[in-house]
Amino acid sequence: MYDARAISNYFLDRAAQRGGPLTVMTLLKILYFAHAWFLAKNQKPLIAQPFEAWQYGPVNRVVYDQFKDHGRKPIEKRAISLDPILGEFVDTAYKFDSDTEEFLAHIFDYYSQFHPYKLSDLTHEAGGPWDRIWSEAEKRAVPGMVIPNETIAAWFATKGGVSWTNQERRFSQ
User: Fold this and answer.
1) Could you tell me which of 121, 126, 129 has the C-alpha nearest to residue 39?
2) What is the spatial distance between Cα 43 and Cα 123, in angstroms, rounded to a whole number?
3) Which range of residues forms the domain containing residue 47?
4) Confidence class of residue 36 from pLDDT cuts 50, 70 and 90?
5) Alpha-carbon distance 41 to 21, whole Å?
């Protein structure tokens, strides 16, 4: 599993290489889709920190807290974390094996082409992980509004009869 801030920095670097800025909303949605499809493909989490069901979709609180001051403006800084050796905050570094980096590149390239509101709509599908937690919270308290990895994996592995194998073709084009 990887730190959500490391993957966020990878996505920010990829966006810069491709000449397009990222907003907080877009980053959070792409981060969620990367985690979800990784779960479906590998049956293990990509990101160590949980996703929560917030009003506008799944949110990784650690990443949101890093960039919330940007609002709707493009992110112009990198995610940071505490370096225990230096005792100070530094840019969160990333290093992925080649398969994971290729996977992240395909996910980013595919989802970054969509408007943030379209990405939000995709995370709000009826019966999907966010919808299940959000709807349940209308009936009873859902501590932390955490979206369980098992719920995400099950939805993305079988979503509408679409398997990871079919998605893999889309992401590798």
Assistant:
1) 129
2) 20
3) 4-171
4) very high
5) 28
Which H, E and C letters describe 93-147, residue by residue? CCCCCHHHHHHHHHHHHHHCCCCHHHHHHHHCCCCCHHHHHHHHHHHCCCHHHEE
> Residue 79 in contact with residue 63, Cβ under 8 Å?
yes
Contact 11, 26 (CB under 8 A): no
- Both tokens of 16, joined, read 């810069």
The total number of structural domains that make up the chain: 1
Provide the 8-state DSSP code for 19: T
Read off the pLDDT of residues 95-127 as tens digits, 9 standing for 90 and up. Answer: 999 999 999 999 999 999 999 999 999 999 999
